[in-house]
Amino acid sequence: MILPRIRDNLLNHSRIDLQHDGIRELICVADGYPEPEVNWIRASDSSLLARNSARVLLKFDNEMHGVNKYICEAKNKHGLTKIFITVIIPDNQTKPLLSYSDIQSHSVLLKWRVSNGRYDRFNHFIIYYRRLHHSDDSDKEEINDTIKVEDYKQVLIDPRTTRYSFTFRVMDLIPYTKYEFRLKGFIGATPSAYSNSIIIKTLETIPDKIDNLHGYVWNETSIVVHWTPPNSTNGPNFYYILYYTTNTSVPFDQWSQKIVRTYPFYVLEFMMSKLNLLFVRVASINAKGSILSDFHIINRSLTNHHLISTIDKFQCSPNDINQLFSIQWTIDYESRFYINKYILYYMDVTENNDDLIRQLIIPISFLSIHKHESYDLYKYEFNSSLFNLNYNSYHILRLNLAVIDQNQNHLSMTQPAIYCTVTRKHVPNNVRVLATDKDFIRLSWTKPTRLSSPIYGYTIKYRAVNSNQPWMVKQTNRTEIFLSELRPITKYEIILQAYLNSSYTDSSGPLTRIEVTTDET
Asked: Residue 150, SS3?
């Protein structure tokens, strides 16, 4: 005698969102002897929707939209087992129509209407938007029923705050940047279909003012000037002009100047014997206009006193499966005493009209160091989302690495540049920390979409950060996990990976990594 048992690919009282979880049907599988009969039943009216032996499929094509509850029931002559599943079915017949007007450099006015005209029924709307790759000039509307939510920023709109005008101005956009917008509405907890996709490009404006202008004497004939680049060019034909003089009584339009079109630093040839004080300013310029930085003064005492070796063996290594990116390099072991941080310069060469080189600050404390006899090997691994990139399926990055010493002087930079490709993958979405305590962490996530293979479950590896301890491993076919027996006030690195075969041994599925700290005792 074996009572029927429903396999745990479906869990009692679980909640499934068809629109976000990428699910089109549910399969209920049961074991027992004799082989059980398995039924899908709509809980609201006890209607039998599907019946079969051992396994039965529930499709939602003819089900009403809304928050619906279903029962999977397995029975044989020895008994009966049932589980309850809540399913959110979107209202795909209601699709907002999105439009726009009044594009500015930092904002755009969005307008929408809904097909059924029942505006008063919607309790809220969500606007989804993201930056797009400049070189993608095909302003085609998206036709996908679902979107990868983590690629978008979101704004929740309560129609009561707009007096049901169904307009909203999205603010804080980047000038001269292409954006995609979509929208969906909610009647209670039931979402509508996603709206049409609209693509706009914000207007140009003058560049941002340069910050952190700095300079120092490199040697008897050279002075280095460097600064922090802006986050955006704000328009085409972007470049810098470095102005400098030793005599401030000279009118500004007579100062010496150098045009800088690449990296945000420049080496001036200047004899130390002629230098008392050097005054510098930097203008950032595009087709729309220019703006000047504040003054900076360099005197002969601002000298680099420490000889720091050149960076050697600079390499990059993307890991597209888990969206990690690593770089490594060597430098002589004595130089580490004088280095404050590193700067990674990067540029997406697949962009066809973006002249901006961006930078990523790398603190020393974030590096792993492997010591050798005459040099140290440094490695920095990070999530590729730290790159400030417009959305595209892949990016080709040109990389250079530079040193900042303890006096904030910008020193040697790797030459020539190296190149790496970053590809976006569909990973477990929206990983959320539901709860933490001194000895546990509870996580949830949504199922990745647009995969060529079905997902059978997830592997969760976790350990204390920088502990070099063996990984603790758990597996589940749910979209949440409870990690227990943890240490208080400890940061844990957690790797969540989907497996794509039923043997639960496949490690090639999409992966994401987070860090979570447990509470105090």
From this structure: helix
Residue with tokens 């000039």: 137
- The Cα 14–Cα 22 span in angstroms is 15
Could you report the per-residue pLDDT of 180-226, keeping only the tens digit for each? 999 999 888 888 889 999 999 999 999 999 988 998 888 778 889 99
DSSP 463-475: EETT--PPPEEEE
Three-state DSSP at 220 gives coil
* Phi, psi (deg, nearest 5) at residue 163: 55, 40
Which are the contacts of 422, defined by CB distance < 8 A and separation ≥ 6? Answer: 318, 320, 325, 384, 387, 389, 394, 395, 397
As a CATH number, domain 97-201 is 2.60.40.10
The two tokens of residue 73 are: 């029931």
Q: What one-character DSSP code corresponds to residue 63?
A: S
Tell me the CATH number for domain 2-89. Answer: 2.60.40.10
Helix, strand, coil share of the chain (percent; to 5): 5, 50, 45
| DSSP secondary structure letter of residue 254 | G
Domain ranges in the chain are: 2-89, 97-201, 211-299, 312-423, 429-517
pLDDT tens for 279-296 read 999 999 999 999 999 989
Tokens in use for 444?
A: 């949830």
How many other β-carbons are positioned within 10 Å of the β-carbon of residue 20? 18
CB 111 within 8 A of CB 103: no
Answer yes or no: are the C-beta atoms of 72 and 6 closer than 8 Å.
Answer: yes
Whether omega before 251 lies within 30 degrees of 0, making that bond cis, reads: no
379 and 401 in contact (C-beta within 8 Å)?
A: no
In the chain, the amino acid numbered 477 is N
| CA distances for 501 relative to 22, 56, 456, 514, angstroms | 18, 20, 6, 24
Structure tokens at 395: 């990016």
> Are the C-beta atoms of 234 and 105 separated by less than 8 Å?
yes
How far is it, in rounded angstroms, from Cα 423 to Cα 420? 10
Q: Which of 468, 476, 482, 466 is nearest to 515 (CA)?
A: 466
Indicate the class that CATH gives domain 312-423.
Answer: mainly beta
Place of tokens 């930092």: 106
CATH number (3.30.559.10, 3.30.160.70, 2.60.40.10, 3.10.180.10) of 211-299 reads 2.60.40.10
What is the C-alpha end-to-end distance of the chain, expressed in Å? 48
Collect all residues with Cβ–Cβ distance below 8 Å to 215 and sequence separation of at least 6.
223, 224, 225, 226, 278, 280, 296, 298, 302
pLDDT tens digits along 95-109: 899 999 999 999 999
Structure tokens at 94: 């209601």
The alpha carbon torsion through 148, 188, 194, 453 (nearest 10 deg) reads 40
The runs of H, that is alpha helices, within 319-411 are none
Strand partners, 98: 112
